[in-house]
Amino acid sequence: MTRALYQCLLWMHPPQFRREFAGEMLWIFESSVETEGPANLLSDAAASLARQWLLRSGAWKIGVALAGALLQVGIGSVGMLFMTRTGVEGLAAAPLTGIWSGSLQSKGVSKSLELVLGRNQGAWVGVITLEGRTDSVADLRVVRSALAFRVPSPDGGFLFRGQLDAGKLAGTVQRPDGAEIGAWAAEAAKPASLAASISTKRFVGLASVVAAGLIVSVVLLALWTRRFLWGRMTSGRGRPRYAISARL
Amino acid sequence: MIEDFSPFLPLSPAALHILLSLAGEDRHGYGIMQEIARQSDGQYKLGPGTLYDNLQKLMTQGVVREADGKRPEGDDPRRRYYRLTTLGRGILAAEVERLENVVREAREHLRPRRAT
């Protein structure tokens, strides 16, 4: 049992050390387990295992490089998420952004309607075109899938209220005194392209920063690994680590 | 030609004892451990892990090498014998000289002083 445990500890050593010394160490274990005691030999092997991996193999450098890379990517991602918080909101509201085309029914008359909705620096903006006349909408408010805005005019304007339902925007038109004067309905004309352009820009921004972090990390890791490998090659057996200076 | 061994000095206690144990004859790992225990009257014991960690370092530095002599009859094939190189012998001599100086200095400073 203790021999198997000792063998297992030896097996976990770095390959180079294991190939060179594991056989001898196992032989010493078999020869000295009676006199030294299994506990001493097992603790020695455990200490050796830690020493070989942490101090001699250089694996800790790769671990540090990987931890650095993860940290960098993590910081980049969190930073970008923080910076694009409005972008995330924009993505959440994306179903309403775009161009909506439909009609306004008022007193038995149908008028063509086009509504453009979007976000500018976190604020909702909109433009409405009724029978060829275009106006900017005022007091545009969006709560989830419901929206309300005012179309100003000299006589007080009209108040539009609507709701997105099953891909269609539909609602009522009221006078400022609350009297309902008609109903309107519109379907998405080009919402996907506008929403996509907004989300794509933010995604590209986020991806660029994360990719830049990854590239820097990979380069650092490669440099570190190269140094580690180079160090291993130049400290091979038969090549003294220190130069012996000679005096005549 | 006088070689400068100062880059190797001072030796760690483990390295010093390993070199000392190999100064007389070639030994295998277990033999080194036993010789170290004998030299220090059992006060300094080296485990196999510490021994081979040091041996690996000393072999990389060219201080110790694997002996290629004839093996005793019926010897376990897993045993490998280690030998002190000329460089290793020089380093050991330099370390002993350094330690002699340390001991001399210590004796001088520990000598009872006369009251002035």
Summary of the model, kept short:
Chain A is α+β, with helices and mostly antiparallel strands and 248 residues long.
Name of the level-1 CATH class of chain B: Mainly Alpha
CATH superfamily of the domain at 98-189 in chain A: Quinohemoprotein amine dehydrogenase alpha subunit, domain 2
State the share of residues found in helices of chain B, binned by percent.
40-55%
- Could you please say which CATH topology of chain B applies here? Arc Repressor Mutant, subunit A
The largest beta-sheet of chain A arranges its strands as 4-3-2-1-9-8-7-6-5
Please summarize the sheet with the most strands of chain A: 9 strands, antiparallel
Beta-strand percentage range of chain B: 5-15%
Mean pLDDT of chain A: 77
What class do helices, strands and sheet pairing of chain A give? alpha+beta
Mean pLDDT of chain B, rounded to whole units? Answer: 89
Outline of chain B, from the CA principal axes? Answer: elongated
* Helix segment tally of chain B: 4
Overall 3D form of chain A: rod-shaped
Describe the structure.
By secondary structure, chain A is an alpha+beta fold. Among the domains of chain A are: about 1-55; about 100-190, Beta Barrel (Lipocalin), CATH 2.40.128.120. Chain A is about 50% helix and about 30% strand. In chain A, a hairpin with a 5-residue loop joins strand 8 (about 170-175) and strand 9 (about 180-190). In chain A, helix 4 crosses helix 5. Chain A is rod-shaped and about 105 Å long. Residues about 230-248 of chain A have low confidence and may be disordered. Chain B is elongated. Chain B has a single domain (about 10-110), classed as Winged helix-like DNA-binding domain superfamily/Winged helix DNA-binding domain (Arc Repressor Mutant, subunit A), CATH 1.10.10. Chains A and B meet through helix 2, helix 3 and strand 10 of A and strand 1, helix 2 and helix 3 of B. Strand 10 (about 245) of chain A pairs antiparallel with strand 1 of chain B, so a sheet runs across the interface.
